[in-house]
Amino acid sequence: MSTPTRKPLDRHELWTLLSEKSDFWTELDVVQVTGSTNADLANAAKHGAPEGKVLIAEEQEHGRGRLDRHWVSPARAGLTMSFLLRPTLPREQWGTLSLLTAVALEEALKAVCGVNAKLKWPNDVLIADKKVCGILAQVEGNAVIVGVGLNVSLTEAELPIPEATSLAIAGASTLDRAEIASGFLAHVAAVYQTWNERGPASVIERWQRNSATLGRHVSVSFPNGRNLTGRAIGIDNDGCLQVAAADGTVETVAAGDIVHLRPQD
Ligand SMILES: O=C(O)CCCC[C@@H]1SC[C@@H]2NC(=O)N[C@@H]21
Known about the structure:
Layout: H1 11-21, E1 27-34, H2 37-46, E2 53-60, E3 78-85, H3 97-113, E4 118-120, E5 124-127, E6 130-140, E7 143-151, H4 177-198, H5 200-209, E8 217-221, E9 227-235, E10 241-244, E11 250-253, E12 257-260
Parallel strand pairs: 1-2
Antiparallel strand pairs: 2-3, 3-7, 4-5, 5-6, 6-7, 8-9, 8-12, 9-10, 10-11
The structure holds biotin (BTN).
Domain BPL/LPL catalytic: 18-196
EC number: 6.3.4.15
Pfam families: BPL_C, BPL_LplA_LipB
């Protein structure tokens, strides 16, 4: 695959598209380069930035991933963005905001790009079992910053790991980042409204319907180095994964990395 032309994002065009689709978003910044959009919005949150503020970077120099990993994407080849929410539901339920974001992205990718994605716990979006997007939610005071890294036009050679993919590789019907970003943010706003009105259960139910994890044999690596193997059987109301071990005991996993095992593993 040759390297596609990567049109810069036009803030005005994106804001117009977004405003046609949703009236939830309050501020939009597009910057050429920054360290991390999550770090920038966390800082903005401390200084009172409003709910609905969005920051998109054409290039990130120190993109953060889960578990202290780096997030790498060539300039303008992906969507690297963060948005700020100030949820009023109890804090225990904020953990489900990354599931909410994954649900919104799955719906937007189908509607805007014509691709079918699946959701891997806790917050990856997969196409054909490969990661196309990572989500990183962090709490800053009474705000939640949700960061999204979506691989749009990356070629095979540009992917950081063989287990990753991009919308270009998946044959998306469009790679127009303004269309994708505005469609995605409109879906986030709609799912967030449901989350606020009906609570996280409604969103978890949508996540489960498109899950790549549930029913699978998984290996869970905990931050303390412990490992658990079992079948992923459900998601509880706080967004935790329930794993049934071979001896029938069910463990609730709040944080960890999982690998989907093949049936023969
Ligand atoms: O899969 C992961 O580990 C999560 C990756 C999240 C990356 C995005 S890119 C935009 C935002 N800014 C960051 O520094 N990280 C998130």
